[in-house]
């Protein structure tokens, strides 16, 4: 895909390092990363519940703004679909994996986690728009869940990070069975959203590990001397 370019610099998503021996500002030390991650994913999840309340009060009009495949108007659904749900059962079923997987993704760094989420959001939505059934409406945060799941499973492989690989193994043991959801299944289930959310997660892991791959390549070349 066109966004997979060799010039992509994933290091821009790393936490900034103070220069000149300056100490981090008090605000940067006030909250540990795990707490920032928990607050962010918790706030996002609360927002989903607020949106569902508004949807119910509006006679379910909001949920009509999902991804409508190959419809020009349906392109707007790429932006809105992950925050819309069919009913309370749909939202409740997504809540726990959303909280856990979202938290783990953000633990690698807020900026990096948000970048991964953005890639999953766009790739998952666009893939659904291109391949979903005609006259259908695709909604739900499961596109993010499958994207985050795939991201956590493969990022350690791309980055050659033992810690991330171990996290991926634990995630697979707990949530690996969800991967069956990328295959056509029960009517009314957007397997296209699941599939392309996962594709977006793999793409995000590849793009955001570019700096680690570059460092490995430089180490493999070793120091070069010039005569």
From TrEMBL:
<dbReference type="InterPro" id="IPR050925">
    <property type="entry name" value="Rhomboid_protease_S54"/>
</dbReference>
<feature type="transmembrane region" description="Helical">
    <location>
        <begin position="189"/>
        <end position="209"/>
    </location>
</feature>
<dbReference type="GO" id="GO:0004252">
    <property type="term" value="F:serine-type endopeptidase activity"/>
</dbReference>
<dbReference type="InterPro" id="IPR035952">
    <property type="entry name" value="Rhomboid-like_sf"/>
</dbReference>
<feature type="transmembrane region" description="Helical">
    <location>
        <begin position="165"/>
        <end position="183"/>
    </location>
</feature>
<feature type="domain" description="Peptidase S54 rhomboid">
    <location>
        <begin position="75"/>
        <end position="209"/>
    </location>
</feature>
<feature type="region of interest" description="Disordered">
    <location>
        <begin position="1"/>
        <end position="30"/>
    </location>
</feature>
<dbReference type="GO" id="GO:0016020">
    <property type="term" value="C:membrane"/>
</dbReference>
<keyword id="KW-1133">Transmembrane helix</keyword>
<feature type="transmembrane region" description="Helical">
    <location>
        <begin position="138"/>
        <end position="158"/>
    </location>
</feature>
<dbReference type="InterPro" id="IPR022764">
    <property type="entry name" value="Peptidase_S54_rhomboid_dom"/>
</dbReference>
<feature type="compositionally biased region" description="Polar residues">
    <location>
        <begin position="1"/>
        <end position="10"/>
    </location>
</feature>
<feature type="transmembrane region" description="Helical">
    <location>
        <begin position="33"/>
        <end position="51"/>
    </location>
</feature>
<keyword id="KW-0812">Transmembrane</keyword>
<keyword id="KW-0472">Membrane</keyword>
<dbReference type="Pfam" id="PF01694">
    <property type="entry name" value="Rhomboid"/>
</dbReference>
<protein>
    <recommendedName>
        <fullName>Peptidase S54 rhomboid domain-containing protein</fullName>
    </recommendedName>
</protein>
